[in-house]
Description:
Alpha-Beta Plaits; Glycinamide Ribonucleotide Synthetase, Chain A, domain 4; CATH 2.40.50.1010; five-stranded mixed β-barrel
Amino acid sequence: MKSSTVIHIGFDDTDSRKGMCTTFLAYKIVEYLKKEQVRFLDYPYLIRFNPNIPWKTRGNGAVALKIETKEPQKIKRNIIEFIKKYSATEDGANPGLVFYENKEIPDHFSKFGKAALYSVVNRNKAREFAARNGLETFHLGNGQGLVGAIGAIGYNFRDHTFELISYRDESNFGKRRKILKDSVMRMQQITYPKTFNSFDVIKNRVLIAPHGPDPVFFGVRGEDINSVMQGASLVKSQEKYRGYMIFRSNQGTGDHLENELDIQNIKPFSSGYLIGQISEKPKIEQGGHAFFSVTKNGTAVKCAVYRPTGLVKVAAKLIEGDLVKVGAGVRKASKNHDQVLNVEFFEVHGLAKDIVMTNPSCTRCKKRMKSKGKGQGYKCTKCGKTASKRVGEEIPRQIGKQLYLPIPSAHRHLTRPAQRMGKINTRIEFDGSKKWFCNLN
Length: 441
């Protein structure tokens, strides 16, 4: 009798900005594996990596599967064929695929995935890692997808969420998605706080559906399997989807901003946080964006809060001396712009006193004195009382010591929404009997 083999399968960069989707490829692979009667050992992983990578396609997501099979070579051969068939290489995709045969993933795999979460990992490093650790690889193009493929199979979930992604029938690819807005609004009201980022009430905007020609119909994100299934069941549309699959994910965890940036050596395109003092009062520049400087240990870095985040008005209330924590991605310096931290959130840790110099008030009449002329002091026009100099007056601050997040429609896939603050999902229970995969064809 043949013995069973545990295989970890990771793949990435199979889509392009013009179409296809790595999660749809995962759906097709799982559809095939179900027919082969392999044993699934966990939910499919959907891992979002560093969102500041300039060559990423949409959400910079990679997928991993963990299975047990008695036909490992057959499974590998056929998955390679799926990668060839469903990768948008003609539109610039550079897919990477890895296989790792082992029951457990060594700890150093998770370090690789963590690096890909907040920094730029060279694809040559991925090739070296694969060779050193006995991974079987396949790639097309330049092999950039190997980075996400390795990172996905070794990802260490500090926290996790789930997403149910439904897929369109091929006849609807490229057509407008006709999802009833009121049904999504109602779905969010019913399932809150177990689901998140489904509808932006500020912008009156549906957040569960993409707008491009890719195969995804909509996706519902939440804390557990039952919540995302309930949420999906409440979404109404004239279009019938072909099926769905539920992924375990790092979306909504904010994990890409858990890395502390070194202000002395900030790398372009990296992600993380910085704690420092406001050293330059925010200025609203052309386009309605706010720019200010944060200083730590004598070094200043420029920060930008962009208008679509909905945070410009509150950021404008910061003043010199405020202590803040900013979570951001690093925009590379160019001929026209300095290096900038593109702010994803900021948290006020300490408020400086806002002191303005004003004419003194008369202690008898309680009225503001008038200047008698340059260098001549001040005089009450009612009783004649005088004073020699201006006085400092503290202005009440219009900002609090708290966390400030962008509006939901400006959230990235990894952004931790307000309702998830302080929440950590650590228990991992995979029940193969639950309907985490559904094919309606």
